[in-house]
Amino acid sequence: MGTRRWVAMLFLLPAAVLLLAIVAYPIIYSIIRSFFDQSGDSFVAFDNFQALFTDEDNLTAIKNNVIWVIVAPSVCTALGLIFAVLTERVSFGAAFKMVIFMPMAISMLAAGVIFSLVYQQDPERGVANAVVTGIHDTFSESSAWPGARPRPNDDVLAGPQKGPYTTKDTVSAGSPALLPLVAVKPQDLETAKPATEPKAASGGGISGTVWVDFKPGGGGKLGAIDSGEKALKGIKVEAVKDGKTVASATTGDDGTFTLPKEADGAKLALPASNFGEKYNGVDWLGPSLITPAIIASYVWMWAGFAMVLIAAGLASIPRELLEAARVDGANELQVFRRVTVPLLAPVLVVVLVTLMINVLKIFDLVWVISPGANLKDANVLAVQLYLLGFGTDTDQGMASAIAVVLLLLVIPVMIVNIRRLRRETRR
Questions:
Q1: What positions does the domain ABC transmembrane type-1 occupy (predicted)?
Q2: How far is Cα 270 from Cα 17, in angstroms, rounded to an integer?
Q3: Which of 330, 370, 397, 329 is CA-nearest to residue 112?
């Protein structure tokens, strides 16, 4: 339009100055600083880079970054492709896409706070463990009184820690079997009824009571049922003779049980299943699962991004090609594999490359979700850079080396993306 070149350069100058100040200068300074020691006074050449690939914490961060780059973009892209294809076949596709894309409106920090609560160990607070324990308890019966046990050096019951506990002497008809236990949590006894003395069993049977041998406020007699002591309901009691169970019963609301005459002369056993600790779910933020758990939160956020981009690419595919494949006898899976996916390949590459660049600098989710004790197990390069550059034990030479490595990792991905964009422009 006849505009002079120097006028265009004048308008570009402010942006160029800002670009040099906030991008070019920090990059150049970081490269130079990476060749100096912790204090910045001594030139150490490549020592920082050597330490980067030998220090245990740095190696953990590199390993986790590799896992992130391989797993997170692949899973997000695969889920985005599946969601995009399936939503085309349902009437509520638009609403479904909105729900899946909605987490993108949440910041990484907020998502980290949400998932730090989701992964809480206590099932009453953490949604993930509430679901896991609910499923577990549906198919596996929980113990009646976790942690209950006899007193040390008890005269009646003996056995290994957590059971089974067996009477030291055999029982006989006409003599009630009193089986005292302790170490029951007070909150577990809130709804328990008072323990009662066992009634005599008819027909030569054995009767007894299982209860908590502890009187609130103190006092009472050991081995005897005192006023205020609570019954243990649902305890399984077995009569054992010569290593074989000849009879069994379960205690009622008042802690009493009755065994048939076959139990006469047997020892009574309380199986370990009565006292096993309550299943408390999965340690999502433990050393072995913390990285997959954080990746799952990332997928929750970014699968919607992948779905929207892939859905846009899917909408541009000529329907005639899909119909022609179906007319030629291809089933839906073959159409998806041989026609849809190849035509979507450019879009899939865009999504994959964008997410790879994104996860190379992942920081917020790892920093917020990881408990302090397990941060080392979830560590990534961006977090390690922050800890070394701004933490209590600073080493800006090492931090700069990490920044340079991250730059070198991002550059090839960016080159691939730029070349792809240029090819698309030429078309």
A1: 62-417
A2: 80
A3: 370
Position 204 pLDDT exceeds 70: yes
Answer for the pair 369, 119: CB distance below 8 angstroms, yes or no: yes
φ, ψ for residue 361, nearest 5 deg: -115, 25
| CATH 1.10.3720.10 segments of the chain | 34-125+284-426
For tokens 């054995």, name the residue.
206
Closest C-alpha among 217, 236, 238 to residue 228: 217
Strand partners, 369: none
Give the C-alpha separation, 330 to 335, whole Å.
6
- pLDDT higher than threshold 70 for residue 3: no
| Euclidean distance between CA atoms 140 and 134, whole angstroms | 10
Mean pLDDT of 90-109: 87
Q: Take residue 396 and report the two structure tokens written for it.
A: 């800006």
Residue 156 DSSP one-character state: S
DSSP character at residue 279: P
Looking at residue 2, its pLDDT comes to 57
- In the sheet that holds 267-270, the strands lie side by side as 157-158, 165-167, 267-270, 236-241, 244-250
> Strand 177-181 to strand 244-250: parallel, antiparallel, or no bridges (unpaired)?
unpaired
Three-state DSSP state, 152? coil
Average pLDDT over residues 84-101: 85
Region 241-254 average pLDDT: 92
Can you give the pLDDT at residue 105? 87
Alpha-carbon distances, residue 187 vs 27, 183, 190, 232 (angstroms)? 59, 12, 5, 13
Q: What is the pLDDT of residues 101-131, one digit of tens each?
A: 999 888 899 999 999 999 998 888 899 999 9
pLDDT tens track for 321-374: 888 888 888 888 888 888 888 889 888 988 998 899 899 889 999 999 998 767
Fold of 34-125+284-426: MetI-like fold (1.10.3720)
Distance, CA of 131 to CA of 118 (rounded, Å): 10
DSSP secondary structure letter of residue 155 = S
